[in-house]
Design brief:
Layout: H1 3-18, H2 23-66, H3 74-88, E1 96-105, E2 112-122, E3 128-132, E4 140-141, E5 153-163, H4 168-171, E6 176-184
Antiparallel strand pairs: 1-2, 1-5, 2-3, 2-4, 5-6
Helix pairs in contact: 2-3
Length: 203
């Protein structure tokens, strides 16, 4: 290789080393995916937090409104479910699974016993259905220590909803199940009877 060719090669390598025209494009290609994941992650996380807050308010609505009845039937629980649906706006298209249960604290055994329980579900179209619950009468459940007072009643609500992220790869395509519970004392009387539960027992 002649001196002239070596000099040309050296000049080419020197020019290549000092050529910065593609640096910005390379940096953007490296940073853009990370920035997009962060952006959509924050967006989806914020929406999930908002839905979680709505679920907590819906649980509070179910227990609070039910506790204000002197007695309750399926039609009353359906109306309470409509109120919970309104609370879920603007996420009312999310199916909501709820339960309303009355609990009695037995003064002899100190156990929290189910008096009656009904499911209150809201589908994606906004239809409210009231039906059988997975809690059966006389089932023993656990309540917070501060609420476990002998001879008293509690209205216990449970609400859950599955949040499906718009961008699945950020939080998973299966979504995130958000749930909450709430307890309220009966307001109008010692308990809130359901037709099949009979009068308020004193056992």
């Amino acid at each position: 290789m002649t001196v002239t060719k070596m000099r040309k090669m050296s000049l080419l390598l020197h020019g290549f080393r000092n050529d910065c025209r593609g640096v910005i494009a390379v940096e953007f290609a490296m940073i853009a995916p990370v920035m997009l994941v962060l952006f959509f992650g924050v967006l989806e996380f914020s929406s999930a937090v908002a839905v979680d807050r709505k679920v907590a308010l819906a649980a509070r609505t179910l227990s609070d409104l039910t506790s204000q009845f002197a007695s309750v039937a399926d039609t009353d629980l359906a109306n309470v479910g409509q109120a919970a649906k309104a609370v879920m706006v603007p996420y009312s298209s999310l199916p909501v699974r709820g339960k309303v249960t009355e609990i009695y604290i037995n003064p002899t055994t100190h156990a929290a016993r189910v008096q009656w329980s009904r499911s209150v579900n809201i589908d994606a179209s906004g239809n409210v259905t009231v039906g059988a619950s997975s809690h059966s009468p006389t089932d023993v459940v656990t309540v917070p220590t501060g609420l476990n007072i002998d001879g008293t009643y509690l209205i216990w609500s449970e609400v859950s909803a599955t949040y499906l992220p718009t961008v699945g790869y950020v939080m998973g395509t299966a979504g995130v199940t958000l749930s909450d519970t709430d307890y309220t004392r009966p307001r109008q009387s010692g308990c809130v009877p359901y037709p099949t539960s009979g009068a308020c027992p004193t056992l």
